[in-house]
Records
---
Amino acid sequence: MPYSNWSLWGTVKYTSVMSLSSAHTKHAELTRSQTWYYKNHCLSLPIILDHLYFIFKATFDLGVYPQEWKQSITAVLRKPGKPNYKLAKAYRPIALLNTIPKVLTSIIAENITHLVEKHSLLPKTHFGGRPGHTTGDVVHYLVHRIKEAWQRGKAVSILFLDVEGAFPNAVTDRLIHNLRKRKIPKVYMDFIERLLPNRKTKLKFDDFMSELINIDNGLGQGDPLSMVLYIIYNADLLELVDIEDNKDAVGYVDDATILAIGDDIGETTDKLHLIMHEEGGGLTWSEDHNSRFEVSKLVLMHAVRPRQIDELETRPRLEINCQIVTEVNSYKYLGVHIDNRLQ
């Protein structure tokens, strides 16, 4: 049945008109080099708006997504500060998409985000990629949870997780399953199922451009939809823990952190090990979502109360997948240095 929800198509025109109005407002501030862009793009919106409206509506009425829209150029950029640029993981792929479908996916992303926020479809501790949230919220929440535990005379252990190739490794079938689980309307799930298969891209390194390459999995970093789809994709990871059982989890897009609270760091370390290894735990999520944890980058930090004397003669070690997780006293998380005494 063709989709004729007025709110979706009303958003198409509203978004475009608002963009045009914004451009007119800022026209006086344009530099000479920007004037050409304004005249050739912004002023053409009234001419193309109705055409875009019917093109976008047809993608839903006819259940199609043009193959031409599925071709992109992937700019491969160096991640700053990496020690070895001979490794693929030292680079970040950014998808440069066709502009017309990008307008459409922006509208769909805005609608899905509205539904997610209106109906509270994501964990409250999933802060990234959501309106009204910043990295500061994550840090403040972590500090609050640690201080709250200290006031009860408890110790806190924090496991900082690292997912290797988060966006490129997302599996379409699992994404659709998670969208259905979060009760995202079927019309959007059908659209995403048409959007993701049979994509092709050309890799661009400096002056080199490859031939078209098939894309089997993943979300394009550069697609307006990718952010909201990924935070739905990995939301289950944050729901592995029970806050009533002195456990918690915090997320900021693909950065996830697990907290365990107990009488001492021996108890908290055991809790973290159980969260990761139990049936349906962290490692199960990793396998089901094709999201491998890079154990060498996992970090453990025990938050110690001021003036607390550690009664353990030997500090417990956290082992995940037969590898010892590195313990630190200070860690840079989302650009903020956090130490185990909150000093």
Note: Residues 1-6, 16-28 have pLDDT under 50 and may be disordered.
---
Amino acid sequence: MNKCQLVDLFILLGDHQQLRPSTNSYRLGKKFNLEMSFFERLIRSGYPCPSLREQHRMRPEISSVVSRLFYPNLEDHASVLEHPRVSGIAKSVFFLDHQFQESTSHLSKSRSNAFEAKFLLHLASHLLLQGYRDSDLTILTTYVGQQLRLRQEIDSNFSRLRSVQVQTVDNFQGEESRVVLLSLVRGGGDSIGFLSESNRLCVALSRAREGLYVAGNLETLAAKSEMWRCLREELEGRNMVGSALEICCFAHPGAIKRVSTPEDFDRAVREGCPKKCGAVLEPCGHACTFPCHLEDRRTHSGAFRCRDRCLRTCPRGHPCQGLCSDPCPPCQFVEEEAEALCGHLVRGVECGLLEFLESCGATCADLLRCGHPCGLPCHGQGGQHRQRCQERCPKSKLGCREEPGAHPCPRLCFQDCEPCLQPVDGRVLPCGHAGTKLLCSDDPALVECSRRCNRALECGHRCRNYCYECRQGGCDPCYRCN
């Protein structure tokens, strides 16, 4: 047997108040405390354990709630004081207390809450209108059934939110987000299930950096758990709980609207902020004169674009007649006399058309590569000619071996000459025979003579091969003598 090795130093790092390990057997986990880590066992047995006290994630409003329940000695690092307030919502932390009941799936037996799903999705849409990106938001829920309901609602009615992360609390441990929207689901039943576990609540409340918004039935939760009663007292003492959430315009925080149902968000969007927008538009610098609006607030590139008269001028100094936010139309000022792009003078042409006026009507006298003049209407000084030469080709057919002009090319000048296929007679091949059935473009040196060689061999007999067979290797031995 191997000897046991002694360990001089054993260091454990962790947080026993976050989610516990999970076991495949629920019965064994509960009966033998297999869900309790070795780290937690040491702490429960009174083993000394120093703790980190300074947190660098949450705004003080969020960390104060967490510290009251789980970390009494928690302190805020100076950097969290610089986290911005949530735009479009009056408070950085709020618990929406409602009385809507949960429901249970017949297939998965998991629970969901239709009201909470719709309310938080409307709230997420409201935050996107305030300028937040999809990656800034996370929707958390305590049940897989609610996660599925949220995603189904997004696919059906909230396509703009398809990139927003929707996760269960258990799968989001160790992660964080600028703004967290938390759906607790449970309400109105005889039990609150695993919402009574402090570890899960600790994770859920400590994921947000700037804003935390919770939807749940706080009356039911507080009636079933001392932990939730403490949380309710903390929230009530800080005025962070109620039946209606206060939203506002990020540009005019004083214009508050109270929303308690999903439909209230639609009404708030329709009514809008009662103040004038007043935003300084870019790049013109004009102030927006529309009533304050949530949509298109950042860019003003849609229905709320600048409607003032454009102050720009054309390159010739004529004032633009369009609106500031629209692309400048072509200048309609009529020039008595102006120079076109080709260099010729034209009269009575709108200023904006001069830069597009490629032809002034004169005939182009530029010579093409073939030597013929272009002959088209003027199409710009030094520009490339748009059409090819349409004159008759002055050359002979391709490969023609007769005198120039004997077989003229019938094609147009810009086209490739066609091969000369005119039959010719009388041409002498390299073998000395006269060629037959030759085309004008055929090279005699490449033509295979089909006549008999008929040369005298050393034996005195005549070669009976065809002439082309003897061109390369000479005549074969006499078939009579061999």
Note: The mean pLDDT is 82.
---
Amino acid sequence: MSGEKVSRRAVLGTVAGLIVGGAVGAAVGWLAKPAAVETVTSTVRETVTRTETVTRTVTQTVTGPVTTTPPPATTPPPATTPPPKTTTPTVVPPEKWQEWYVEAAKPWKGITITWQGENTPMCLGYDEYIRPKFEEVTGIKIEPELIGWSEGHAKQIADVQAGTGVYDIFFQEQDLINMMIERKWVIDLTDFMEKNPHIVDPNYDWDDVSWYVAPWKDPKTGHLYGIVMEEHPYNSWYRYDLYEKLGIKDMPKYWDEFYEISKKFFEWGATQSPRVYGAGCQMLPVPFTYLWQEGYWSGWGVYTWGINMWAERWRASVENGGWLNSDRSVQAWEYLFKLMEFFPPEAPTFSWGGNSDAMAAGRTPHGFREYAEFPTWIYFKAREAGRHVPFKARWAIAAPWVWEETEKRGKPKREDKSVESWLKRYRAYHSYMNGGGWSIPWCARHKEAALLWGQFSTNKVNSWFAACIGDPYRISHHKALMGSTEGINDKDTEYYSIWWEYDYIYAPAPPFPFHVLIAERVNQKWILKILNKEVGIKEGLDAQAKEVDEYLTLLEY
């Protein structure tokens, strides 16, 4: 690592703590008219992929003016290698795919590109299984920086705002891509590939990617801003060995049935060793906020964070046409407080995959919302080690009216990549389809090499690894794994088959450019106040809805 790179990263490390708050300011800045002076508070998001006790949450507070500065007009640092002088043939036999990358990558052989990502199972998987292969074939080195979500996202924003060009490629969460597109912080990949056909993999087969490619496009132009590299449902899982012990045949589809089964396990588990409790979920402050926004609210029919996207003006309060403070939302809170009586005592320490870990340890028998990347990673790594975890995947539990409303709005197919089909999913859905993609910052120093990595890691050959650890974003891979014993052993877990059958019940994160503003400034504050019983359920929801509406009015939605 050069002294120059160390210096630039040191600068980003110094300012990164300010940037999540700055992102909130940016959300106001590019959409609102006058700037306002206010205090921005953001909670650091951490990923825990093993069972451990987490005892603290770090909060960073920044006081200062909300920025209204547009994306920097400065020229990004020049690449250290010249562009190729010849173009690569566009017709290459599929069996020659490696030879194509060898030739296409020659102008950048020997350079190092920097990848900013998260310490999540999928990023760790790409680092472990695919990065060494890419480096061997192309001669291009990759320097990964895999850290927690908040710190990483803050560093990404620091890089693109200052135009420093520290990073060449981002792992980007789908729920934040719309902010990146609006600010022009990441490049238009459609345009970039049209201008650089010599580095577009002729055998990539974009048609093989699932509908999840649609949320990575600008709805106004249809242009692509991210290459899908991760996709998995936020669904329900259970320990089938524990279910068998109580004579329960299958996981329920409705909340009331789930409650009764959880209660039964809680009572039975009191005599077991180790102790078995009734249920669990992610409970640390930021993970709990996202539980509500990404999977739990919608399971009660409070879609798109309670904001009515279909009205003339986007609003959250019932008084203004939204659903945030509706009877459904009240019912969701009342139910959760009852269910929490069956949680294990360590549940308050559960991070993103905390309950998946508890299920693997036999502490909880099931989870009503699990990011599938966690139980699948646990299952896959256990198989590698010669062990077996008796997990089984299911749909996403929901209220009866949610099942009805989702059925009524139709069942878009997994192969349907149209923007219309994608947007239709927001009419009614049970939970999120979660995932990420590769995006290239506007100031990246090696955009061409970054695009090669983005394609190499997700082409038909190399993306097989992702499908096997639980993220089959290619249709051909998903079909191949249904009924197979490979990967997450569908004959055992039924993961791939159930996902395919119930794919229509999921929707991606809503296309909100103001995601950080509402999620971290408003929703998190009131969700935690209600959870900690600092305010009553209805009182808190009314205040939350009012505040969301105030911001949406300010942003002129």
Note: The first helix runs from residue 3 to 31.
---
Amino acid sequence: MADEARAVLAVLATVGGFLQFPGAWHGVETWLEPVAGGIAEAVARPTGALLVTGPTGSGKSTTLYAALTQINRPEINIITVEDPVEYRLPGINQVQVNEKIDLSFARVLRSTLRQDPDIILVGEIRDQETAQIALRAALTGHLVFSTLHTKDAMTTPVRLIDMGAPAYMVATALEAVIAQRLVRKICESCSGPHVPDEREMHWMKHILGEAAAAGAFRHGRGCSHCHNTGYYGRIGVYEMLEMTPELVAAASSADSNLFISAASRQIAGHTLMHHAVERALAGTTTIAEAIKVSTELED
């Protein structure tokens, strides 16, 4: 194995256009509908920080690019700092970092702030310096979008504080956090009714109670269209945490347990796991995919 090589190809499809937000923009119904209203409110604000969290490959950048395309106008100065630049957007200044020549996120971000941007997209907050510069920008008249690697929305402010960002800065700069995952969609060409096995039904009853027994679940039987996998394409599952006055006060206290408790109350019933279950109930994905999301959150 030591002498073998491996290549990974990331295919970024832009031919069909970027995702659209329903409700706030033209009523287009897409995979972002559970959090679209909250995103629309966040990006309409003149200042503050909007963070999208999740593991690598969960669609974080795509979500932020969708937000940028909706508010991209000639009179708005938008600058992105990325590693790498994944999508080319007309009318937006995009800068790719290069650590080999000391062109780091923090260094580029400091230079970006001298260009009087209205909106800044930071590809990823990786360290204390980048976190503090981004949050300070959000407090001083800029709208900041970025991503972070945390497993859910409510642990994100705690993670920023653990990275060294002052609690007061996190509490006052952060407007909202979106956590997301991607689940596989059932192939429409071979979709059929599915009777949950004992393990699946036990899990569904743990989430839904006896209502799980009335669910009309589906799965893909496998066909030439989906290469006999039963799945074709992917769709997002989301949760969103908005920084209400209660959460701002809890985050300012720097007591992580107090914040997690308050955040849990706000997001109860609208978590990633609940949205994955909703996708399964709607016949969009399988129970197995919903369980997979739950397992990742518990690890």
Note: The two ends are 29 Å apart (CA to CA).
